[in-house]
Amino acid sequence: MITTILLMACITFFTRYLFLHRDLPFKVGPKMQQFLSFSAPAVLTAIWVPIVFVTDEGINLDWQNPYLSAAIAAIIVAYKTHNIYYTTLVGMGLFLILN
Q1: How far apart are alpha carbons 95 and 35 in whole angstroms?
Q2: Using alpha carbons only, what angle is made at residue 72 by residues 48 and 95, rounded to the nearest 5 degrees?
Q3: CA 80 distance to own-chain centroid
Q4: C-alpha to C-alpha distances, 76 to 26, 48, 70, 71, nearest whole angstrom
Q5: What value, to the nearest 5°, has the Cα angle with vertex 60 and ends 56 and 63?
Q6: Which of 24, 40, 57, 90 is a Cys-bridge partner for 77, taking CB atoms 3.0 to 4.6 Å apart?
Q7: Which residues pair with 59 in a beta bridge?
Q8: What is the average per-residue pLDDT within 5-15?
């Protein structure tokens, strides 16, 4: 088991090292940079959509869903303020109040 963990750590390190080390002769072109710019929003969306919309019974689009209400409030605050701290506080605060 420790061997597997060490091998996975090495794989993770070296795949990131190739992109971050400046002395290596490998450069990412502009098209690849544009393509990679979509990876963070795609990963974050894949994380939050099941949390907000999916329950044990299926898809929950009800207004009594505290995840959905807090997410909508967080989206509005993020759009209006462009401040991650206000967005986090409003989203978490509303979720705690509703839950």
Answers
A1: 34
A2: 75
A3: 20
A4: 41, 16, 10, 9
A5: 135
A6: 90
A7: 54
A8: 92
Quote the pTM value: 0.63
pLDDT tens track for 70-82: 999 999 999 999 9
Helix/strand/coil percent split, the chain, to 5: 75, 0, 25
Tokens read off for 66: 């505290």
Half-sphere exposure of 94 (CA within 13 A, CB side): 19
Q: Residue 59 and residue 65: Cα distance in Å, rounded?
A: 11
* pLDDT, tens only, 28-86: 788 988 888 888 899 999 999 999 998 888 888 888 889 999 999 999 999 999 999 99
Q: What is the DSSP string of 34-73?
A: HHHTTHHHHHHHHHHHHHHHB-SSSB---TT-HHHHHHHH
Instruction: Please tell me the distance from the alpha carbon of residue 95 to that of residue 65, in angstroms, as a whole number.
Output: 10
Residue-level pLDDT at 33: 84
